[in-house]
């Protein structure tokens, strides 16, 4: 037995920030020694992101750009928070208020596509790395969707951009162990509450590409060719000598991203040898893979994966399109790509790839 996807839903906040507005915000909020720099503009111009949806929405953005305080948001710049922004407690309050409703919307869409009644779900797997609160996302889904109070709940926390693939692995274990299980996996991330107000270049790059969103999938044990997109295998590879290249740590003024310039090169050097071996273990070669759902962590990361695996522009078009339209939403993003491939009736086998702190690559094989 293995897990087969029967429904996949996505959701995002109503307000989007364009690349131009993102740069204008950075000119106000970035550390005082970079606000007028010549290199801040190209970060946004070359980001590959046309718009990003975020819970820090229109009223706050308008206040920041106009120098007003109508919204009363703790994210507005003040002399007291110059260069640091709100406290982590203030940021977590926003996460606690907004993450649950976003997760419920994505999950409701997945249930609707699958035709599964909420009270038929036996297991819930939640995924998030951008916030903590308890009772958490699992509780929000039980209450918001009308799931049974006896539903089994599991949380995959703080694993970064590949977290949804880890959640999928958990769902597969449940479906394999219990052929009657119906599993809901929901990844919800709010990156915008961790907007960085300082001057470090790698964190300013993160400001330009990260966004908010949620994605959910529901499924059950596969039963023959009519099962749809079935998870055949999952894999993981910790790239050597990469511990300090990508990190996500809790600071006093939000969670702090470390994103080394070496990340694309490490992916380019190590991805293909591992992936070829993993595919071989599953009776396939790179040439056998018909479609790819590559997590668009950034334009250089997508290009590194493309060059390492000798993929065509067409193969990476769904990843680049999702990135342009939504930015990097962390863990839900690869599910946005997967949803697009399913809607296009993309050929299989399909390999989904994600990259996260460590540096770690995660893979999922769908047939």
Q: Per the principal axes of the C-alpha atoms, what is the gross shape?
A: globular
Here the CATH topology of the domain at 229-366 equals Peroxisomal Thiolase, Chain A, domain 1
**Topology order in helix (H) and strand (E) letters:** EEHHEHHEHEHEHEEEEHEHHHEE
**What is the alpha-carbon Rg in Å?**
20 Å
Number of helices in the DSSP assignment: 11
Give the CATH level 1 class of the domain at 229-366. Alpha Beta
Low-confidence stretches: none
The oligomerization state is: single chain
Please tally the β strands and state the result: 13
Side by side, the strands of the main sheet go 5-4-6-7-1-8-13-12-11
Superfamily (CATH H level) name of the domain at 229-366:
Thiolase/Chalcone synthase
Topology:
Elements: E1 3-11, E2 16-18, H1 19-29, H2 40-45, E3 51-53, H3 58-66, H4 88-114, E4 123-128, H5 137-145, E5 152-157, H6 163-177, E6 182-190, H7 201-209, E7 212-221, E8 229-238, E9 246-251, E10 254-259, H8 263-281, E11 291-294, H9 299-309, H10 313-326, H11 333-343, E12 350-356, E13 360-366
Parallel strand pairs: 4-5, 4-6, 11-12
Antiparallel strand pairs: 1-7, 1-8, 2-3, 6-7, 8-13, 9-10, 12-13
Helix pairs in contact: 4-5, 8-9, 10-11
